[in-house]
Amino acid sequence: MDVPAAHSTTAFPTFTEALDRAAARRTAPAVATGAQEWTWADLRDQAGRTAAVLHRHGLRRGDVLATQLPNGWELLVLHAATARLGVVMLPLHGGYREHEVQSLIGQAGAVALVAQGSYRGRDRVAEILAVRDRCPSLAQVWLSGDPRGGDLTSSAELLSQEPAGGLPAAGRDPDAPLLLLASSGTTSKRPKLCVHGHRGLLGNAAAVAADGGLGATDTIVSASPLSHAFGMLSVHLALVTGGAVGLCDGWSPRRFLELLTAVSATAAFAVPAQLRDLLAEVDGGTDARPPATLREVRTGGAPVSRDLAEHVRRAFGARVIVQWGMTEVGAGTYTRPGDPPELTATVGRPVSGGAVRVVGPDGVPVAPGETGDLQYRSPYLFREYYRAPEATRAAFTTDGWLRTGDLAALRPDGAVSYRGRADEVINRGGLKFSGLEVEELLADLPQLAQHAVVAQPDERLGQRSCLVAALREGAELTLDEVTAHLSGKGLATFKLPERLVVLDRLPTTVTGKIARARLRDMVPAAKTAEARR
Prior knowledge:
The chain is an alpha/beta fold.
């Protein structure tokens, strides 16, 4: 499905054409891991060889190749090689286990899989073999690393130095599918697969670069995996600008700071949870510091308090860009480099070429300052949910706006104030409020390592508010302390949490967002403290 009024007819390069241009413009290293570095020409040449190997194994235009690999050279080569061949890549999060991998490969009908044989010290060869046996579409599985323990082929052959040959002509259609990205699944239990084309992803990156003043002299490092749109944006930004990208293969605050220094990063991408980890590392008296070259920290995916943004500005000596986006959207709205610091309390304005509107239950736009349903439109949206035409149709209004499922309010200056997910609204006896509002007011409570405010069913009132928290090491917290903290900030009584659930750790997505669908399943049986009002 082509989204109404979404895709421009302006000429735009495919990934392969953009890579050729970047290779011609920049001869200096463009891809780095801290230990190794490569040029764009290295990527172009290796991608051609890898595409030839994939083609010899029967992969053809329109086929789906799944990957479950850490950020690194191998994954980036496969991205470029599948783009060259017209194969659609499905990058899977490293934390997915057998159930999720099997489900998503089944949804996509993937014909090949390239996966790492271990994850965070856990051997998963047996899981990969089980997925292969249970997914009839899989004709080929390559194992990254030593393939011992099974009859799997090493992915080393995909990085063969043999000359490329026997390749069909590269595709020239910028609207052809490039990636399948699984939605983050914060409020649903089964991710949907978003189809993204070359024009959408690279056009979004080009617009972000133009809006943010990023160019060929920038080196961007993202803490997010390339299986997520936020992580992929860092690669695509470097590609379309002819700049450089640093690849971080797993989350460690110290190693991330070291990588920023090793590649002389000018921009760092990290979600708020990761920023707090970085601040703890920097403030902890260690020698790990952000490099002097760093001038921008881009964040999103969870609320960013003014205190957090200001702390980052002071500690990193860099401006803070706050971004809102979705797997379907990419970078949708964000603050700009010249915005005053107080705008970090918003998620900025739409990407150039994009637009937002906030509507009420009747679908009519509400007045500035009023909360309503956030709808979005841009030339860079996903094309469709893979093999799910009904879900695709349901995602859009009849006049072509994406129903985001988020709540927001528009400021008179056009900036968007994010109000949380529509399904996070708590309805206490007819009085409705967003759990996000309460979460933001709790962000400075020192005992909290993680927290979320969710609705719990109640026979009399319909729903009551529940705070679910993971505490910092050695900390204790009571419900009375929580309500006193919130009351001291002037929060209305009906919005105060009436239940406190303490867990060892809250479930999260790979980018640090609270996985609320899984959280709701965990809460009913948990030990709690309660208060009735």
